[in-house]
Amino acid sequence: MLKDSAIHELSNDMSYRKGCRYFKDGRVAKLLRRPGTSIYVATVEGSEDYEVRVRLDKTGEKIEAYDCTCPAAALYDGACKHVVALLKVIQAGQLEEEGESAATSGPYRKPTGRLFDCFARAKKHAHLNAPKKLLPAALREAPIFLEPHFFFERHYGRSNCWLEFRIGRERLYVMRSMQEFMRSFLAGTPIEFGKKLTVDPQTAAFAPGISTMLWRFLLDLWKDEVSSLYYGGAYGARLSGTIFEGKAVKLTPSALVRFLSLMQEANAPFQARTDIHEERTVEIVEGTPALELGLAERSGSGRLMMMTDEVCYLDDDAHFLLVEDTIYHVPPSFSAALHPLLEAFGSSRSLSISAQDIPAFFSTILPEIEKVAEVEIAPAFAERYEIMPLSAAVYLDYYGDGIAARLEFHYDEMKFNPLAGKAPQEAPSGRRLIRDAAGEAAIFAFFDTYDFLPKDGRFVQSDEAQSFLFLDEALPELSKITDVYYADAFHEKPVRRMPSVTIGVSVNDENLLDVTFDAAHIDFAELIGVLRSYREKRVYHRLKDGTFVTLGDQQLAGLADFIESTGIKKAIDVQNIRLPLRQALYLDALAKEDKSIRLARSKRFKSIVRDIKNPVDADIEPPETLKGVLRDYQQTGFSWLSTLAAYRLGGILADDMGLGKTLQVIAFLLAHREEGRPPALVVAPTSLMYNWLEEIEKFAPELKASIVAGTKAEREAALSPALKDADVIITTYHMLRRDIDLYEKEHFSHIFLDEAQQIKNPATQAAKAVKKLRADAAFALTGTPIENSLTELWSIFDFLMPGYLKSRRHFQSQFETPIVRAKDPHASADLLRYISPFILRRLKKDVLEELPDKVERKMTNEMTDEQRKVYHAWFVQAKKEFAAELKAHGFGESRIKILAILTRLRQIACDPALFLEDYTGGSGKLDMLEEVVADAVAAGHRILIFSQFTTMLSHIAARLGVMNLSYAYLDGSTPALERMRRVRDFNAGAEPLFLISLKAGGTGLNLTGADMVIHYDPWWNPAVEDQATDRAYRIGQKNNVQVLKFITKDTIEEKIYELQEKKKALIDQMIQPGENFLSKLSEEEITALFQ
User: Fold this and answer.
1) How many whole angstroms separate alpha carbon 472 and alpha carbon 540?
2) Cα atoms found within 13 Å of the Cα of residue 54, Cβ hemisphere only
3) Do 269 and 147 fall within a single domain?
């Protein structure tokens, strides 16, 4: 077994300590042992993942060889921290044989003795021990200079490059062994070059600038050298020997480019020698050289000669070109043109061209050469050949659904069709004609690219789509190099860009929107075809006159979105399109945000949009009796309701709880009371029915308000006269559902749903009943239009303006799924365009500067010992039941059972005695409540205590009785009139405490007499808790309000609280900042509660 001392001896103290820490942190992965050997391989996680190898002797007690791919292993002697970590794992016996795990697969698959021999040899040669400590700069010696000498040879098309160096201060010495120099310098061993020069690495430093840059370059190559030895052992012998060999440093292709780039960056000339020239000074410049060639004539043949003294590429990629005493760093385009020429020359300086190839040379090769060099042509060639410029014409005509093109090449006065007839061979001068082969080929390429075929002396293309692409993409470029002519039936501009489309929108006498489309030069029928082609995702549309319209214009995308979003897609074939007035604000917002949509608005359209968007500017006076009562923001709310009602539109008054939504509606009802007009209908929760009556009697006693309640017979008796004489009828959701047969026959002036979240589930009987009602305009009042899902918002709008957000299925696919699951910002923005004009929401912090502060605080309590034991036992059982239920019935069918399991755990967190009859172990939370309440009451605070468990309220009441504290109590069984009495008594100061069921008293109550709110147990939906809190934190509150949320430590309550916080991060973008909603719990979220 390996001993710590054996591992420690291989490394310094720091590497050993870090390696031990890496071992403890579990950073060694993919560990395996080669079968039948003592070779171990692993991946160790550091700043990167490094491969580490170790070989032990047969006893496993002695370390024979090791290596690592990290930089430290290449630069320093001894084992690095990664090797130490692997050795500690081996020592602990945490390993597996190769093949036992999929994790063992990797690049090192062939165990071989030679591999570790090479590792050992690399270590022996390296001795890479960098200086441990440098002397202060003031005590160092004069800087050392490095001078490179570059050598270049080319044999049979292959280049051979290397560097030799001189080193010194005032005098430079030849470095005889580069390998010995690197080993000694890195090991910190002084190196003697002559009697007057000894370099001590401990005190020496390379001169700033090129010498330092060259040293870093050498250091990189040395790392490559070590790596080459290393991988040579792993993969077999290398082909080219070592990089450092004698006084030479061999340059691989990549190293050559690095060296030349370095010298260019430093702007440093250097010595260079090639197999043609002796050593001389060269420099590297950016640019292209002036090359000269000559074309001589010999008995009708030609000879192309390189006139520039020396021209050759140094690197394989032809980036660096040596021309005499200068190395040019040339652009790729220059290299691409010159490379075939130099390749043809090879080591020769001239090329022969046969007499029969001279015309082809002039036509095809010479134009390419002239891109990179000056060519001096012998006069004899000018006497025999005439190079004439090409001009060309293309004649276009229709060919069925496609097009035909006839070509004509012009050389001076000579014209011919290259697809028909014989091309001229002689120029008018009698000399041999040299045609522009490259120019002709370029023209042919246009037609080849778009699959034209030669037929009857023309290029023809019968496919409409290919013809369009040719006209749209190729023709503009072809027109630059040819003259294009069109047949009489063919338009001079065969491809048009889509003209601007103007959408006209106006409001007619029936309060409907008239929508028209106008596109210049394209009639409405043609526009329909264009849009249909765009919907089919075609790239063009062909008009009746044969011309093409491109469909890639951004305007068409906006137009298509407009048609899709407004729901007029099916009506696009109709000349006059009509939309409901409620679409006006959506159209206006869409056009303002999408600049590609040009919307021509009528004067009345603009007026309606302005009135709804800016109700504060509307000239609507509130009732005289309420002018001094309404706050500014309530006046705005009144104007907003009045404006929407004037256009028979609906909306959601979503003001923060406690801002007086009821008063704003009462002002509206009073202002719009008219003789002979049907009454308005208010539908409210049972707990708020009499509150509405009280508020009306207080602020608008002149309004005739009737409550429809009691038995069936009493309700029928009350409703009949109310329909004739009352201004306002007040009923509840529960009673409306029972009496819908009476209400659905009537037409009301206005309908107001208070706490409209009551119809958030469109499948409930209450929602179905409400949606059968008829009125001129309908409104919803709720501080929480979304509690769990966006479908709740759809359900409310489906009552206010049926069909506005289309069907439920459409809404979910178009908005809810993209927004909630995919977090699609475009879907969110589009939904906001629809709903924001019809939702008015103000927050207390924005409109009530005088409202005192609200401070929320989480208070965590420990469980009692007995309570902890009970909770742990039930939690273990709950996990088993949860898993079994999921397995047996799946998540969808198990919700009720799962919620029952969760409720049991929540009850234990509150007080195990809630369902364990003989339990006497106490409750940590109830004890904490006793302490908090005792101190708070003693300090004069008045407190609301909410719990969703009425049995828990009973336990709290019993504890308060022991404490001799009086309290008020309210739950779902408390009659409506009694609720109002208890609220009045509490606000008047009768008791210091009010125990309230969360569901029964979380809405509709005004309890500003309290200044402290305690949520004894957390509810899934934080919006419900916020509603309850706002019973105290609302208009009329004079004191700061403290909100305490009790959470039992180490229970499901902590996870519910975390879930609340997580969900609150999903701010309700559909309303305004400050309104939150909690998505329905998913299977993953519920599963996390049992972790």
Assistant:
1) 10
2) 31
3) yes
pLDDT score recorded for residue 500: 81
Could you tell me if residue 300 is left (phi over 0), alpha (psi between -120 and 50 degrees) or otherwise beta? Answer: left
d(CA 692, CA 755): 12
Residue 122 placed within a domain: no
Domain hosting residue 406, numbered range: 388-486
Same domain, 459 and 555: no
3-state secondary structure of 987: helix
Mean pLDDT of the 982-997 span: 91
Of the three residues 847, 866, 899, the one that is the final residue of a domain is 847
Q: Which of 761, 797, 771 is nearest to 1070 (CA)?
A: 797
pLDDT at position 95 is 63
Q: Is residue 910 part of a domain?
A: yes
Give the count of domains, the chain: 7
Which of 803, 829, 847 is at the close of a domain?
Answer: 847
Mean residue pLDDT of the chain comes to: 84
Q: Sort 662 into a burial class: Cβ within 10 Å, 0-12 / 13-18 / 19+.
A: buried
**Which of 705-709, 821-825, 959-963 is least confident?**
821-825
Using CA atoms, how far apart are residues 600 and 501, in angstroms rounded to an integer?
A: 10
pTM for the full predicted model:
0.52
What are the b/e assignments for 356-384, b being 16+ CB within 10 Å? eebbebbbebbeebeebbeeebeeebeee
Residue 806 corresponds to which amino acid?
K
State whether 368 and 400 are in the same domain: no
Query: In sequence order, what are the residues at sequence separation of 6 or more whose Cβ sits closer than 8 angstroms to the Cβ of residue 665?
Result: 641, 653, 682, 752, 779, 781
Per cent of the chain over pLDDT 70 is 89
Same domain, 801 and 923: no
CA–CA gap between residue 581 and residue 513 (Å, rounded): 6
Q: Is the pLDDT of residue 555 over 90?
A: no
CA–CA separation, 908 vs 916, rounded Å?
Answer: 9
Residue of 1073, 1081, 1026 lying closest to 1055 (CA atoms): 1081
Cα distances (Å, whole numbers) of residue 199 to 140, 181, 192, 664:
11, 10, 6, 93
What token pair was written down for 794?
Answer: 């759809």
**DSSP secondary structure string for all residues of 581-643:** GGGHHHHHHHHHH-TT-EEEE-HHHHHHHHHHH-GGGS--PPPGGGTTTS-HHHHHHHHHHHH
pLDDT of residue 487: 86
Residue 747: beta bridge partners? 774
The Cα 144–Cα 211 span in angstroms is: 8
Q: How far is CA 486 from CA 236, 284, 405, 829, 1013, in A?
A: 69, 54, 10, 49, 85
DSSP 417: B
- The alpha carbon torsion through 423, 426, 427, 430 (nearest 10 deg) reads -160
* Integer Cα distance of 570 and 786 in angstroms: 32
Residues 824 and 815: their CA atoms lie apart, in Å, by: 9
Q: What are phi and psi of 266, to 5 degrees?
A: -80, -10
CA 370 to mean position of chain CA atoms: 51
Pairing of strands 540-542, 548-550: antiparallel
Residues sharing a CB contact under 8 Å with residue 664, sequence separation 6 or more, in sequence order: 630, 634, 637, 638, 641, 653, 655
Tell me the pairing of strands 391-399 and 402-411: antiparallel
Query: 989 exposed, middle or buried (CB, 10 Å; 0-12, 13-18, 19+)?
Result: exposed
- Indicate whether 279 belongs to any domain: no
pLDDT at residue 742, as a whole number: 94
Cα 1032 from Cα 196, distance rounded (Å): 94
What integer is the mean pLDDT of 413-417? 90
CB contact at 8 A, 98 and 35: yes
Sign for the pseudo-dihedral over CA of 596, 602, 607, 612: negative
Give me the pLDDT at residue 573, please: 57
522 within a domain of the structure (yes/no): yes
Of residues 211, 146, 159, 213, the one with CA closest to residue 322: 159
| C-alpha torsion 1011→1015→1020→1022, nearest 10 | 20
